[in-house]
């Protein structure tokens, strides 16, 4: 019984909405993904299990379609069956080119007139009414034009921007779609009526640029790419440090309050490094203060020196400890740091394992369990759960 138990979703298979459908299915919604004859194109996306291509062996398809059901239909020839499925549902999730569903008699005006409680979520590159709706796009061009790519890269600006991996451009659009849908579901509880949600993936990427878009609009400031840290108008202190064992960590958020300063000094004592760190006296002064605030830097330069010492001590400790030891010690005293992991290492991290993030999912057709990323959250009353992605047409009876 997940949080969205009882919510019925029809997803018209498309890579632009696959992540949104997965999020909803893993939250307990009943999601039927309607695939074209021969299967959704995503089934041909690698990598494949044991490097053997096949529509039932795509790891990408498995990842994006956990918890869903599959039915096959030609939207043009079997529109009545699909329309009937939609009529018994709460939500339609689609990424068809603007105007195509209306031409098939399944546009918003037609569906909402027949089913006033229906919520339709459309995720397209530029929105339903854009003059650019016919332009071809890729996940990379959406991210680049939207803005996130500009802020990702290195201090050396002779190097080009770096693309974030993992289909982030698509995920951003899907996250906005899911957030908007949750609001629409709550509004329907009050008004009894559904509504149309029109998501522009380009716009979604543009507002997901931290300070970049708004910094330019509000202050005409251009953000600078920086290695392993937030883009900012001016260079900031480094945060990635190489540890004693050769691995790298991010030193994260430095001490900002007297209690944390005191715990850092105690850590130096426990490691026998108090006298070796040249700014220990500033840390002790920070620990003795009633409060510390970045807002006080302009009126009290000594506050700036204390806070700078808090940043420096993290780099100092990282260079003298092994990466995981540094991570454990600083986390224990309430400082947000992290080891720079490979994806495989992240799945094996003791904290991730303790929270059951690596999740076994059974594949009866293979007679084996495979490890998937699990939930990033816990619900006390509506536990998260999932199951493997559907085989092609595995739930064809859902079309009636």
Summarize the structure.
This protein has 15 helices and 11 strands. 33% of the residues are buried. The model has no long low-confidence stretch (mean pLDDT 95).
Descriptive account of the structure:
- This protein is an alpha/beta fold and 400 residues long.
- It has 15 helices and eleven strands.
- The chain has helices spanning 18-26, 59-64, 79-87, 100-103, 108-114, 139-146, 168-191, 201-206, 212-219, 258-270, 280-288, 301-320, 323-332, 343-348, 350-354, and strands spanning 8-12, 30-35, 69-72, 91-94, 119-124, 196-200, 240-242, 248-250, 338-339, 358-363, 368-373.
- A six-stranded parallel beta sheet has the order 3-2-1-4-5-6, with helices on both faces.
- α2 (59-64) links the parallel β2 (30-35) and β3.
- α11 crosses α12 (301-320).
- The model has no long low-confidence stretch (mean pLDDT 95).
SSE order and pairing:
Blueprint: E1 8-12, H1 18-26, E2 30-35, H2 59-64, E3 69-72, H3 79-87, E4 91-94, H4 100-103, H5 108-114, E5 119-124, H6 139-146, H7 168-191, E6 196-200, H8 201-206, H9 212-219, E7 240-242, E8 248-250, H10 258-270, H11 280-288, H12 301-320, H13 323-332, E9 338-339, H14 343-348, H15 350-354, E10 358-363, E11 368-373
Parallel strand pairs: 1-2, 1-4, 2-3, 4-5, 5-6
Antiparallel strand pairs: 7-8, 8-9, 10-11
